[in-house]
Specification:
It is built from 7 helices and 8 strands; from the N terminus they run E-E-E-H-E-H-E-E-E-H-H-H-H-H-E. With 260 residues, the protein is an alpha+beta fold. The chain has 2 domains: 136 residues, Archaeosine Trna-guanine Transglycosylase, Chain: A, domain 4 (Roll), CATH 2.30.130.40; 102 residues, no CATH class. The longest helix has 20 residues.
Length: 260
């Protein structure tokens, strides 16, 4: 039996803004929550929907502005759910936030006495390309990830385990952007990019540049080879991606969190 975690965009969702951290869908982010206002936020959401939107400050924020003001946020956020948490003796939390979907901030909600910010959001990615329409890009992406030039690159080696037929391209690309050594600006740009094809093509170009820096060779695309045969492209499974996440009650990640 499974339970569906749905995002209700009719209600405001709590915001957790940071300067140097970007959550992407299909990825997990461990967080140490120690500020009183965000501890209160976690208290609230674990007893209700379990949702937090990870946001990014528009500019570097510190000191009084961070503590007592409401610094401007970048418009795109990632809605995530708390899949695991631990309450420490002094009230701090260790949580794992699992990215669900991209969304844009429409307006911030009245805090109504809450010390943390919330906002009304709108999903930015509702239509996804069919997996078979991405066969050529998927082959090129997997070929790059398995290139021997990356054999000593720990982040690429880690990512190779996800380059399996059962992992849809939309998830593989988000996992790659999160796993590879990209900076905050690059990760935010890929969070803000709602077009999956554009994200795939950007990632392919970045991997080609990485390979060039390592080996001094851009290499060849498998599609450019005179021996390329379309039959080399494996048939990928049809996987429907939406904003709902099936919850397996036997998965230990969900064991601590009541989701109403």
């Amino acid at each position: 039996m499974s339970e569906t975690i749905a995002v209700n965009f009719e209600s405001p969702i709590p915001l957790f803004p940071l300067s140097n951290c970007v959550l992407l869908p299909h990825t997990a982010l461990p967080l140490h929550v120690f500020e009183e206002r965000y501890r209160e936020m976690v208290d609230t959401v674990i007893d209700s929907h379990g949702l937090i939107a990870m946001a990014v400050f528009q500019d570097e924020v510190e000191g009084e502005e961070y503590l007592n003001a409401s610094p401007t946020l970048r418009p795109i956020v990632c809605v995530g759910y708390i899949s695991q948490y631990e309450t420490l003796p002094d009230g701090r939390y260790l949580v794992v936030l699992h990215g669900l979907c991209r969304a844009e901030i429409l307006s911030e909600a009245d805090q109504k006495g809450n010390p943390y910010r919330s906002a009304f959001l709108n999903p930015t990615e509702l239509d996804f390309p069919e997996e078979d329409s991405l066969e050529a890009q998927r082959l090129e992406l997997e070929t790059l990830l398995r290139d021997s030039a990356f054999d000593e690159e720990e982040s690429v080696v880690t990512l190779r385990q996800f380059a399996e037929p059962h992992v849809p391209t939309i998830a593989l690309v988000d996992l790659a952007v999160s796993t590879l050594e990209f900076d905050v600006e690059q990760r935010y740009a890929m969070l803000a990019e709602a077009d999956l094809v554009q994200r795939v093509e950007w990632l392919i170009m970045e991997l080609m540049e990485m390979r060039f820096r390592i080996s001094g060779s851009l290499g060849d695309s498998p599609m450019d080879s005179p021996d390329f045969d379309e039959s080399q492209i494996e048939e990928l499974p049809d996987i429907e991606i939406d904003m709902d996440v099936d919850q397996d009650p036997d998965d230990e990640r969900f064991g601590d969190l009541p989701l109403n």
